[in-house]
Amino acid sequence: MIKQIKTLPQGSWMKRLDESIKHGDIPWQIILIVMSVAIMILVVAIGVMLWNESGEARNMFGWGFLAPTSDASWDPVNDHFEAWPFIYGTLLTSLASIIMAVPISLGIAIFLAELCPEWLRLPLNWLVELLAAIPSVVYGLWGIFIFLPTAVTPVGNFLFETVGKIPWIGALFAGPIPESGVSRLGAAFILTIMIIPTITAVTRDVLLSIPASQREASLALGATQWESIWQVLLPYGISGILGAVILGLGRALGETMAVTMVIGNSIEGTISLLRPGYTMASVIANEFAEAVSRLHSEALVEVGLVLFFMTLILNMIARFLVWRVARRIPAEARI
Amino acid sequence: MTTQFQELIASNQIRLASRRKFINAFMLTVTGFLTLLALIPLFWIIGYVFYKGGSFLSFSFFTQLPRPLGMEGGGVLHALEGTMILALLAAIFAIPPGVLAAFYASRYPNTPLGIVLRFSTDVLSGVPSIVIGLFVYIIMVKPMGHYSGLAGGVATGILMLPVIIRTTEEMLKLVPGALREGSLALGAPEWKTSLSVIFPAALSGVITGFLLAISRAAGETAPLLFTALGNERYDIKAIITNGMAQKQSIFTIFGRIVDQPVDSLPLTLWKYAQQPYPERIQQSWTVALVLMIFVLTINILARLWVESRKRRLQG
Q1: I want to staple A107 with a disulfide (CB 3.0 to 4.6 A). Which of B34, B77, B83, B302 is the partner?
Q2: Do B113 and A25 touch (CB under 8 A)?
Q3: Which residues contact A226 (CB under 8 A, 6 or more apart)?
């Protein structure tokens, strides 16, 4: 039996409504657009809210809040706040971790993208990405009880005895490192492990997206495999790799729990890697819930605001660089 | 004379070539070693967490509330319940907008709004989780006047949003264009095509993305520090029995469940790890083990699933 579908009569208001909203497509599009705009607004709102909520602290301390001074004070009792020790701690640990993570990640990415046998590639990819899946607190727990005492303390002592004796640079390695290993160096090591997967994944994708013709041409000219990687592929993808590094840096800047657990959370006057320190994220984590005064919590929000802007700018640069590589390569040339 | 000269050049070239070959072999080996180097901490952590945490793991660890120090036993039921509540709330807040935005991003990737949307997703995924915690504190905890599981759920949801948008978008893009065209050609409107043809085809991928997002969010502590705060006496069963006794509606009971501070597994781990008592530290290792099992299982299953889906859709 043929099923009769009753169509609405020509002039009915339901039919006209249905047609004027294009059979439901216009509401659908509006919903999609509203949701998309909501996500944009969310990002903007984070910045605006932090900005509003830190007004008093910004007025009170001005740019001096961020100024690099050696005698900066963070004094909740007398309501005087300068954030330089935290900014310094964040920058030092992040940069140190980047310096350690970049060569390792580049090596891994080259191995995964260029050399690894096909059957091994997927498992290795997963294992490296599992490093990113381990919760930050677990890194912290492992860090304080296992990694710091067994690995960081000996390395720290070695650095103190060798590099620490050199003038100028030596100040960065002035020790001695605490017996427990709790130090900026420890935080930098943990951060290194945590950002390796980020840098590796993006670099690997950049390498894989380079046209095979580049490899073939270089090999055909008689270059060895390493030479074609080092002199052809890496320069070709350099801006994407730079983007990967900056993404890793952004992740290191914002990492909170693991760093809070291993860095010692103390404001000392030293600039040394081997001494305990403090970072922007960890001061918020430690003090915000128990802020003693309104100005104290505003100052902490301002630290968060600075952190937000730092990661925002880094992310924009990184995305732009990665996007530029992706755009330059025509889709059909990808392997 | 000339032959001697040629021989000299030839031997030089051989030396040069062998040097280049050596560098090649050496550097390629180095990259392999670096890969192994990065895997050392992975196995070190997993091994230690299983070794340290495994000895204390028992069934009662999951079914009992914490007991005061000095008393035997006690578990982390409160944290387990809290984690589930937070995950549930985060799912409610993150999935609908995330999936809809992903529809937009995959359907109109090159419109200005599409570009801005993908850009803001990227930015959102880069915002430090502690900053998201601050944000939610400002917009929710402060106006409401108290810490709550609801605020923790919102913070976790914001954290999950970019992951959900990105994986969903990727999965929607994998659906063959012929399906869309076929549906449109049959006269189905765009929304019906999206919801009843494309979305089901991509559904398993979307669920995978959600699971990955949950596993990432379940391990996060920083955004919960001043939103969900933590609550050692959190007991859903007590709230429900209490509510039933007073003949409250299901919404009131749910409201009371999410309205108070809740604990979560990573939050408990963090608090216990800072206490100077060996029992607490032992328990924090066990919590770490539970977290790791949860995260690793979800990750491995989700990836296996995605891989097989991709093969089926592409092959």
Answers
A1: B34
A2: no
A3: B23, B24, B27, B28
Residues 6+ apart with CB under 8 A from A62: none
CATH architecture designation of domain A82-333 = Orthogonal Bundle (1.10)
Domains identified in chain B and CATH numbers: 60-314 (1.10.3720.10)
Of A33, A134, A307, the CB nearest to B113: A33
pLDDT string in tens for chain A (335-residue length): 566 767 667 777 777 777 777 777 888 889 999 999 999 999 999 999 999 999 888 888 888 888 887 777 888 888 888 888 899 999 999 999 999 999 999 999 999 998 888 899 988 998 998 998 999 999 999 999 999 999 999 999 898 888 888 888 888 888 788 888 899 999 999 999 999 999 999 999 989 888 889 999 999 998 999 999 999 999 988 888 998 999 999 999 999 999 999 998 888 777 888 889 999 999 999 999 888 788 999 999 999 999 999 999 998 898 888 777 777 655 444 43
Residue B37: which of A39, A43, A104 has the nearest Cβ? A104
Q: CB distance B126–A311 less than 8 Å?
A: yes
Q: Which residue of B has its CA nearest to A40?
A: B120
Q: What token pair was written down for A146?
A: 């296992």
Asked if A215 and A232 count as a contact pair (C-beta separation under 8 A), the reply is: yes
Q: Helix-strand-coil percent breakdown of chain B, rounded to 5? A: 80, 0, 20
